Amino acid sequence: MIRTCEIFLQTGRRPRDASQQLHIHTNTLYQRLARIDSLIGSEWRHDPERALETQIALQLLRVARTMDDVPQRNDSDPIA
What we know:
By secondary structure, this protein is an all-alpha fold. It is built from 5 helices and no strands. It has one domain (2-62).
């Protein structure tokens, strides 16, 4: 559902464009959007400020996941 949300926002909240990019039927997209709405509310689809907040949250999630993949420095290791 994260990917659906990202693509929907990246395509300017245009269902037809988002469904084409996701390679799914438009009805499937609407079902996914309804599921996302049930989790976070529908404002993210209609309110530009809420859409921006959602985009920022998705970017932060991507960064956090990237950080999890980066090996952490052990404090006992000498600083190089």
